[in-house]
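Sample 3 of the quickstart, ligand PBG:
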Amino acid sequence: MNSKYPQTRLQRYRRTPARRALFSETNLQVADLMMPIFVHESLSESQPISSMPGIFQLSVSDLGRELQELVDLGIGAVMVFGIPAQKSRLAEAAFDENGVVQRAIRFIKSSFPQLVVAADCCLCEYTDNGHCGIFTDDGQWDNDGTLQILEKIARSYAKAGVDMIAPSGMIDGCVGHIRQALDQSGFQQTMIMSYAVKFASAFYGPFRFAAGTQDVFCGDRHHHQLAPSQIREALHEADLDRDEGADVLMVKPAFPYLDILSQLRERSQLPLAAYCVSGTYAMIKAASEKGLFDEQSAVMELMMSMKRAGANIIVSYFAKDVAGYLKEGRI
Ligand code: PBG
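Result:
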């Protein structure tokens, strides 16, 4: 060792941008990104989402313009959420062959066949109480009844040509149930991206306005989503979904659960997705609007934290911004 301080050797790696790039241990690429999009059945023009600056509920007619923008930025994957014209007790609009998501999938697959399309498979935008499942007449959570509906939704998405079904409700048994339904209907090639590890999180707050559930949903999802204290239980959930046939396991929210993502990376051979949720987006937007930090640096640091923890896919409302930064080489 010829340096006086051992740190000097480490600092040699960091002297210039070119050296930092050469020795980068973790790399982010545009192919890692998946952009969530909200399509609203009854809007004639797109509307800004009040809780998430820069994100819109898209009208069906604006979908093409938005997708073109994504494709031009090099983004290769989207996750579709639908807001139906009509909510109901049994969420019938969710599995309508001409429902808003089914139409969006068909449109994307015919106009932008290069995109990987995931679609949210959940009831909360479609039920009149905003819950992710249905209840029996005497007010009990109806898990089996909910599975029956999820199965219909999944089949209708697969029929429309979706690449990945994304069951986001943490409904017991949903991955196995959906896998079986897909296989029996000839959709063996349709993938399941499971929200295997989903915490009951305050960070979903801004999403309610995006999904159109802000006025109907009250209560919480603690009985089927994980409590923030749970590590082993979270890993156990991931094991169950792997055994039920999940193709991708998701951790949601990614921040502040990067420890779980990292532990799952150590244990699992499956691809992992990290969902950088609405609350994280809104928080960063609010702080940068106040001039408290530089938005681009904060966003890229956040993206890198998810990659470092082991994410293969990053689902983020920042996808367009990140793709732009990467394209301009501004990192
Ligand atoms: C519900 C669903 C939620 C999100 C995606 N799907 C909310 C919830 O579980 O309460 C949140 C996404 C976000 O906050 O960005 N199926």
